[in-house]
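Regression test attached.
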Amino acid sequence: MDGPHHSTATRDDVRHGRAAARPAADGAGGAPGDGHSSTTTIEVNGVPHTLAVDNRRVLLDLLREDLGLTGAKKGCDQGQCGACTVLVDGRRVNSCLLPAVALDGSAVTTVEGLADGDEGTDGDGLHPLQRAFLDRDAFQCGYCTPGQICSALGAIGEAAAGHPSHVTDPGAPPGRPVPLTRDEIRERLSGNLCRCGAYPHIVEAVEDVLP
Amino acid sequence: MATTADTGIAPADPGSAVGAPAERREGRQKVTGRARYAAEHHLPGRAHAWPVAASVARGRVRSVDASAALDLPGVIDVLTHGNAPRLAAPDDPVLAVLQDDRVPHRGWFVALVVGETLEAARAGAAAVRVAYETEEHDVTLDAGHPGAHVPEEANGGHPARREQGDPEGAFAASAVRVDTGYRVPPLHNHPMEPHSSTAHWDGDRLVVHTSSQGTTPVRTTLAAMFEVPEERITVTAEHVGGGFGSKGTPRPDVVLAVMAARHTGRPVTVALHRRMLPSVVGHRAPTLHRVRLGAGEDGRLTGVLHEVVTHTSRIKEFVEQAAVPARVMYAVTDSLTEHRVAPLDVPTPSWMRAPGEAPGMYALESAMDELAEALDMDPIELRIANEPDTEPDSGKPFSSRHLVECLREGARRFGWSRRDPRPRSRREGPLLVGTGVAAATYPVLVSPSTASAHALPDGSFAVRVNATDIGTGARTVLAQIAADALGVPLDRVRIEIGSTELPAAPLAGGSSGSASWGWSVHDACTRLTARLAGHTGPLPEGGLSARADTTGTADADSPYARHAFGAHFAEVAVDTVTGETRVRRMLGVFAAGRILNARTARSQLIGGMTMGLGMALTEGSTMDAAFGDFAESDLAAYHVPVHADVPDVEAHWIDEDDPHLNPMGSKGVGEIGIVGSAAAVGNAVHHATGVRFRELPLTPDRVLAGLREAGV
């Protein structure tokens, strides 16, 4: 079965896209001059990586296949499930939808990097939200879990920055931090599917780490 | 949300691990992203393979032109039925991939492209040109389908038809009669991890990492198909991203990965794309129900007739046993339960969480609600009035049955007594609010298993069993069982599961995992304890070991009818402007024997209820008559519940001390959470609106049309 992205990532498309705007990068890949790959530098969990990246490769596959960071999961490969959620320059993204070569110069945080981040750990090597997921039993099979955690951290940041959601009171003053009620958490995490049905416990875990 | 303070269980004995809410043993790996799933084994030289799916509903492959694909950089090879390794015919016909030119349904795999990278394999698959000889197809199920027939048996080995007394006559003579029908659409399991396998031949040894609910049967299947002795095959499933039945049997991904690895001499990963799953990993077959309930004025049932029509594929007969729960639930002497199945040119259906019970109890428990309305009787009291002394169909005594207690306890917790029974009695602006109840049942299944237990000189214990943790918490629960059988603290026990290198064990399915594996773990640990008691002095360097095999005991016939029961309560708000139904709260109370781990059991029960919420409101697939595929083939079109759909879900249980089960006294909790939950939601929608909807899911278009038609 053909995936939906083939027609968007032919070599011609990429030649005329962003990769072609950086001729120094074009053709520096595994097969030099073939036009299939571009040299791309991405910082992942604080470590810069410079790689020859297949122009068709999405960030998710760069993380999983090139860097061996398999914490970000492939649930649908088309932006529908959220299992691949990571933070790019602090914002949550579906990493299965982002061509990696378009992220040259970006800083990516994956679930593997959370405990090493600025927010510190709880003393046992876990980010507080990871600890809360354990305490609340906020997962079963674990496959959506890294995405849920990254997405929740992104959502907490968005709310703090005053981004409204569908359930935010339209009369609330714009730009002010949005309190994360349970309804707000549910709404903002609805792009992260969990087939095991851990939702109630995930919401409790997120509540546990709200400032 | 579930309350953690109120576990609903009696305090554990001092030193008792079983029952305690122990934290998941693999939890840290999962929350840190270190848990590795089947596609995440980076073997040196690994290639990736991408299947090509048939684009016709029925016919034959006339030719496969792989030249354009082979010209693409990074494409290693293209396998078709013309060049793929010939395999011994599998017991399960869905695994006979690339063995002949037949296309039994749309989405059947007709080629496999192996590439150096995912991108190369995928581009190669898009470049493969397949020509077909198409044949007329028929994929549309209706109750009068000429191909529908009564098979010998339905899934689970149940007789397809049972008749007691004179059901037609008894029904006709009943004082109060409900004669109604329900439709449950095809449903998709959609575990979050798509089916994936990584295979590697090391000389004549085969090593496979696969996303499966049980690797012991996977190994047996591969050994037969590839004609390799089992002892030269290792299959692991360390972490599995859900299954819900769809990974209960090997799927084409594992056969293709092994085949491609043999063909190319490379390790190969086959990770199915989400959109491929509905065609090749099984689905819950659609069920068309006719339910007739006859009762006296006192509410006592005088006739029960549940007739089900469903579909299967042309290559394999799978019959969703949806009429079976009517053989268990209510006291009645005149009954008919019958399944008819029509083979169509559709993908092969299979297990999805509580096959049979989930759709069957939706229909039966909705009909009970209709009967309660016809009798002007409280639906809980109607159920209690029909509580049987023995299992109605078999006449066997129940090993334990606490449905009445579940109903009463649920009613108390839910606040049922405050309910105004009149439909459409609660209005909040444009919203109509209602509550509903339904019962649940799921059989106690158990299979023989082996296990070993080892006492090590450092005072720790290693327990080995090829169980699979698909998210249930198997590691944790088995360690608890072992600790108690050994009489040691939980942290002294190491548990090893998820590999065929361990003692053979059955799959995680039928809510039987903990019972089956736990029984053998219990027996091995009990024997080891006896050995240790007879041992003096320090342990030898290699420690002491004991093994157990529950063949002959776990599968011995029981004189008892053994089932778990439960009661679901739901509150919904129906928007009369948009037709949208929102669940406000769900509450379940279950009687499932001894609960082995309060934390993981609660999560499983809530998870089952959540899937039931989806079955009621959002999940539905449609077989496209023209194209022969499921129109809702991905997660944008097939709507599993999301966070915003699931507000307040509580799962509770009552103590049940049943000596007729297994040494732990457990019944299993993986499936009963979904059984009946959709009926509770549907009954709540009826209470809210006064309109009875009989086709799932209750999407806004259907509800709005129904409300308009009824003038609401």
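Expected vs. actual: identical. Residues 450 and 549 of chain B are 4 Å apart (CA to CA).
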